[in-house]
Design a protein that fits this description.
The chain is an alpha/beta fold and 501 residues long. Helices cover 25% and strands 29% of the residues. It is built from eleven helices and 24 strands. The strands form five sheets. It has a ten-stranded mixed beta sheet with strand order 21-20-24-18-17-14-1-19-23-22, covered by helices on one side. A hairpin with a 7-residue loop joins strand 12 and strand 13. Helix 5 packs parallel to helix 6, helix 8 runs parallel beside helix 10 and helix 10 runs parallel beside helix 11. The radius of gyration is 23 Å and the shape is globular. It starts with a strand and ends with a strand. The protein binds alpha-L-arabinofuranose (AHR). Alpha-L-arabinofuranose binds next to loops.
């Protein structure tokens, strides 16, 4: 039988970059059951004194997400943050137009700040540049970050937060290039507004980092030119440019679907090229980095969402039930992010709970919570994809999909000097086993710590029954500086090796 051989060459002295831990961030939007019945459900048996579900807090902690983008998403472009502060019984019920739902505002800024602390994450606060703008942004940042003695900072203190929130990362606007967006703008209109907004925000707090809103998808007709015009306006004002990308498998074409990581890689390369072209044109020393602040698979729920009645509280929206092939793509997209660790500094798996999410909840009954297939590869990269991303030379055969040549194995390795571990993430996209070999040069290799695999499931299997799990990869050997492993067909694998610095 034909055996696929895949070889990887790693060298301690060849690195891509230090990994910014925020690459494993996530996103939660006031949409569907992400917040209500997800994060916040005072009537749930697991709820703490603040109404937060502790079963959800425990699950989120397992994902080790360092940063969470909030409150949207499309939601933010019609949102008034002041609706979500102050006594809960005085907060207005509103028509929420982005998702045509009812927003009760029982969860808002203070609740999010408290909850994110409980899960160990920092906020990435999004500002409404759809219906609002400069004034809203300067008030919000004064409310959040100014110590005391002014109208907005004292209002925060009156509302129970004596100390400033000190939010460092701010997203100015969301998907302003999309005509579905409330307050959609041309690149020039958004660019000017983003520039002026960034200016006032920095006047309030010079220490913040700002993310400008890039293309919603690589297929947008304005892709590329949007970034160019935007950066012409905000190059000196912002630190990151955002990118969003969701993939689907409507065509039920596995080869093509698993090859979307090649598209993802191309998308990132294209944006880097635009950023650097603008940099060159401006004779600038400053580098714009990327925030891939929405990425995932999203399509399973779309037909059901079209049939949902409008104006419900916490409707079941965007509740994709992910199958095994989705987990394989998510793993491969995560590998792609690590390969770009030199430029992608922020990543947000979209989203976190119930809405296109790794974690699902039931409103009542058991199980109260369940993990989707995509939970597993993401949990491994977020916990172990830390330290330094290593450069690699790879010798891997590729298969032909409709739009791409796709390497049968996709891999990346990291070295973490805190744990003295080399961690290899490798995915086998072939229907056959792969003989995988890695040479490790200039490492003081000691021993194999752990080798795991995630495989053996029907590609369309979802995980409501919680039968999916990561098990150990048995056929793996470490011999001095050479590692060999037999990778199962269609498998996600992680190999940890101890090596002194
Ligand atoms: O994550 C779901 C939606 O996808 C977000 O609200 C929006 O930013 C994107 O189109």
């Amino acid at each position: 039988m034909f055996t696929i051989k895949s070889k990887l060459y790693l060298d301690r002295s060849q690195i891509i970059s230090k990994i910014d831990p925020r690459i494993w961030g996530s996103f939660t939007e006031q949409l569907g059951r992400s917040v209500y019945e997800g994060i916040y459900q005072p009537s749930h048996p697991s709820a703490d004194k603040d109404g937060f579900r502790t079963d959800v807090i425990d699950a989120v902690r397992k994902l080790n997400v360092p940063l969470i983008r909030y409150p949207g998403g499309n939601f933010v472009s019609g949102y008034d943050w002041q609706d979500g502060i102050g006594p809960k019984n005085q907060r207005p019920r509103r028509l929420e137009l982005a998702w045509r739902s009812i927003e009760t505002n029982q969860f808002g800024l203070h609740e999010f700040m408290k909850w994110s602390q409980k899960v160990g994450a920092k906020p990435d606060m999004a500002v409404n540049l759809g219906t609002r703008g400069i004034d809203e942004a300067r008030n919000l940042i004064e409310y959040c970050n100014f110590p005391k003695g002014t109208y907005w900072s004292d209002l925060r203190r009156q509302n129970g937060a004596e100390k400033p929130f000190n939010i460092k990362v701010w997203s100015i606007g969301n998907e302003m290039d999309g005509d579905w967006q409330i307050g959609h703008k041309t690149a020039q209109e958004y660019g000017r507004l983003a520039h002026e907004t960034a200016k006032v925000m920095r006047l309030v707090d010079t220490s913040i980092e700002l993310v400008a809103s890039g293309s919603s998808l690589r297929t947008m007709s304005t892709f590329g030119s949007w970034e160019e015009t935007l950066l012409d306006n905000v190059y000196d004002d912002v630190d990151y440019l955002s990118l969003h990308q969701y993939y689907d498998n409507y065509d039920n074409d596995l080869k093509e679907f698993l090859g979307k990581s090649v598209d993802f890689d191309g998308f990132i390369n294209d944006i880097i090229a635009v950023c650097d072209a603008v940099k060159a044109r401006r004779h600038s020393d400053k580098q714009i980095n990327l925030a891939m602040d929405e990425w995932n698979v999203w399509y399973h729920s779309k037909a059901a969402d079209d049939k949902q009645a409008p104006w419900q509280e916490a409707p079941h929206l965007l509740e994709d039930h992910y199958n095994f092939e989705d987990a394989l793509l998510v793993g491969s997209l995560a590998i792609t992010l690590l390969k770009h660790a030199d430029r992608v500094k922020i990543g947000c798996l979209a989203q976190l709970i119930n809405v296109i999410a790794p974690i699902m909840t039931n409103t009542s009954g058991e199980p109260s919570i369940w993990y989707q297939s995509i939970f597993y590869p993401f949990m491994q990269v977020s916990n172990y994809g830390q330290g330094i991303a290593l450069a690699q030379r790879a010798n891997v055969p590729a298969y032909k999909a409709k739009s791409y040549d796709v390497p049968y194995t996709d891999s990346v390795a990291t070295y973490n000097s805190k744990t003295n571990e080399i961690v290899i993430f490798v995915e086998n996209k072939a229907h056959e086993k792969v003989n995988f070999e890695t040479t490790l040069e200039n490492f003081n290799v000691n021993k194999l710590v752990e080798a795991t695999q995630f495989c053996g499931y029907d590609l369309k299997k979802t995980n409501e029954d919680q039968s999916m799990s990561i098990d150990s990869l048995k056929k793996v050997h470490l011999d001095d500086d050479k590692l060999t492993a037999e990778l199962q067909p269609l498998s996600w694998n992680m190999i940890r090796i101890n090596a002194d610095d």
